[in-house]
Amino acid sequence: MEKNDKEILNLVQALKFLGTTKPTLYRWLKSGKLKGVKAGQQWRFYKEGLMEFLHSKEKEKTKFEVQLESLVDKFTSRLKEQGFSKEETTEIINKAVVVRPGNKNTKKIKNNTKSEPGKPDAARILNYIVMEGLSSRASDIHMEIFENKTRLRYRIDGVLKEVEPPSKELYQLIIGKFKELAGLDLLNKTAPQSGRFEMNFGGRRFVVKVNILPTFYGEAATLIPINADAVLLKLDQIDFSPENYNIVRELLNSPNGLIVFAGPAGSGKTTTMYAAINSFDSAKNKIFTIENPVEYAFYGLSQIQVDQSKGFTYSKALKAVMKNDPDVVMLNEITDKETAGEIMETVLTGHLVLTQLSEGDASAALVRLAKSFGLEANQISSGLAGIIGQRLVRKVCQKCKEKYTPEDRVFKYFGKEPGNSREEFFKGKGCEECGGTGFRGRTTVHDIILMNAKLKEAVESNIPAKDLRRIAMQESHCLMKEDGWQKALLGKTTLEEVMKMTKDI
Ligand SMILES: [Zn+2]
């Protein structure tokens, strides 16, 4: 040991040596991470101890911080591959991206947030985290904190992908920044909070929903970026099979009746419901939507926002709409018996109503409708027009797809005989484009129920839920499994993927 290392420093010298401030140093002392000796009222520090401390501090830096610059570089080159110009790329990385914070008192992310070496800039990192998510087509971004580490994950095509997380210290700064942007209460760290802000990415507008959840070791965050310009798809962009597409078109042509869009959370049923709304001619039809909240404003629609806290419920909104001579009404959800009753009344007075239920498939939604909302059997049998069930399956990467033969058990699942030589199946081998997963993007599988005499009779005879479900599946136009089989034959997805996504049905 060098003699020099045994040197004793006073507080001022120690602050200088560590390059920190008094409050931070006291925090380190209090936590026991840094050791000092109190001589009377004065703190004394061994230089050796301070050096060790600095060394351990350096080790605390996660790979994320050490690699941040190279992560940003990789991200930059990917943006270039995606066709962004050099100027656009620089702008995305370095400039203000938040165009509308959740709260008008919130400041925009500052321009020119170039980070200094060694000094991570929360705003720039936040930019990076969200932009990385947008450019890799993540549907949601998850940030979690534990005793000694943090976690950062992106859900891409339905599968969580873990990446290098920021350190705990930086994590907290970033969460604070997200809360600030979303207009949330910064001081409240014990209640769940939700907000949103808007961002620009490559000329497109994104709304980023921010959900904060207090967990044992700190606040976790889920960020959900929504492309505000891509929400209103056309019906033919939903990837219905040609047969299903015609059935849906016909269903939407009904002069009146209830049409339900069913699927588990994250199945894209809302997108499909909006595409259905988009198929009506808003010049010839008076279209109302009742939403909570109104996510995007669309030209030609009268959108009404429910406010439960003020007592303006779905059912009250629907009553108000009925006084305004609607042709088509869309409700985000059926929340309670009262709303359900109101919907059936609307339908039976000659209107078309579109809504959605978070059920696994169309037949489960029929059971839910018949059994959970206190509706009369004849209200359903005469009011319900049809149910469109939907789930998402991953699409085979077109860059690396190749022919393969599924195992016999897979054919068995679909009730098919293996070895039909005319049938060809494809899967992705895994390439750079798809991150080695063999999948890129997602497509839909559907099942559709149209109310027919047999189903009406089943509903009216008040049979048990499981019997109703069985009959509904028998009467379904095309089960999701079958639709998935057809889509696998077209090389859009794999049989294994359809099997995985439908096995609970
Ligand atoms: Zn690939």
Q: Summary?
A:
With 505 residues, the protein is an alpha/beta fold. The chain has three domains: 3-60, no CATH class; 63-227, Beta-Lactamase (2-Layer Sandwich), CATH 3.30.450; 235-391 and 444-477, 3-Layer(aba) Sandwich (Rossmann fold). Helices cover 38% and strands 24% of the residues.
What are the SSEs and their pairings?
Layout: E1 8-10, H1 11-18, H2 22-31, E2 37-39, E3 42-46, H3 47-60, H4 63-81, H5 86-94, E4 98-100, H6 122-135, E5 138-145, E6 150-156, E7 159-163, H7 168-181, E8 193-201, E9 204-215, E10 218-227, H8 242-252, E11 257-262, H9 269-278, E12 287-291, E13 302-305, H10 314-322, E14 328-331, H11 337-348, E15 352-357, H12 362-372, H13 377-383, E16 384-396, E17 401-404, H14 408-413, E18 425-428, E19 439-450, H15 453-460, H16 465-475, H17 480-489, H18 495-502
Parallel strand pairs: 11-15, 11-16, 12-13, 12-14, 14-15
Antiparallel strand pairs: 1-3, 2-3, 4-8, 5-6, 5-10, 6-7, 8-9, 9-10, 16-19, 17-18
Helix pairs in contact: 4-5, 4-6, 6-7, 10-11, 11-13, 12-16, 13-15, 15-16, 17-18
